[in-house]
Amino acid sequence: MNSGEKSRECYRLRHGEAKDIVGRAAVYGVLIACLGFLFSNIFISYLYFLLKEWLSNNAIGEVVIVVFSLMPIQFVGCGLAWLVYLELSPSKVCLADKLKVYFKTGKPFLLRLQRWVCHSVLIYIMVLIVAQITYLIFLFFDLQIIVQPAMQLFSSLSSLLARCMLVFAILIVAPIFEEVLFRRIMPLAGLHLGFSMPWILSALCFAVLHGSLFVVPSLFAMALILNHVVRKYENLLDAIVIHAMYNLLSLLVFFFLY
Asked: How does the average pLDDT of the chain come out, rounded?
């Protein structure tokens, strides 16, 4: 083996080791983020209902519950997931430069805006259809219907500040955190672990970790559409904006109906 072949072999080994380290980091990051996500959506969200009498008409108590149930876990998880994503991103272009190009005025932005609106409405219609079918199945088997903890919490809060903080988490923090985790980091971790269809696995985890059996089928359908968006357009920001627009639409409907 000559010096050139030795150099290439050393590079291949170093590159393989680096990919292995990044893959393992993605796996550990997914595990930590999923545990935090599950903790946020199931345990602490229900803590409000356990302490409902004590928190009745207590604005400070409601703000504390919202802060400790959503904000720290989502912000920390979002930050860690975003750092891993940037590390794994094949493009080394500065994030600020990407955003400037992405949100520039003119025809490209209008086309993206049309894409966002169309996909968010499509997802909402799909979720409604699947939710209606799931509702009939739950009625047939006499199963208890439980909505998402975040929606239960939102409908029970009386403090305006607590509601605004929860809306901020649902519209801004959650779409960024969830899309980076389930549309970027988890598929990479799945590939590292040898899963042949990591996108299906990430969609299933996205649905299950929202803390309600009733919404699993509809959120699974939503995740499949978002997976398609990311794979087709190769841009995570599309999925983040569509997810945020869907959450906004859901909140508006929930607010006016309930």
From this structure: 75
Q: Could you state, in order of their start, the residue ranges of all structural domains in the chain?
A: 3-257
Query: What pLDDT is recorded for position 4?
Result: 46
| DSSP H/E element including 73 | helix 71-88
| Span between the terminal Cα atoms of the chain, in Å | 74
C-beta separation of 251 from 230 below 8 A: no
Assess contact for 171 and 248: CB atoms under 8 A: yes
Judged against a pLDDT cut of 90, whether residue 220 lies above it is answered with yes
**Cα within 13 Å of Cα(66), Cβ side:** 27
Look-up: residue for tokens 């290439």?
Answer: 8
**How many residues are recorded in the chain?**
258
Place of tokens 């291949």: 12
- pTM assigned to the model: 0.79
Report the C-alpha dihedral over residues 77, 75, 95, 204, rounded to 10 degrees: 40
Q: Which among 231, 218, 239, 115 has a CA at the least distance from the CA of 174? A: 239
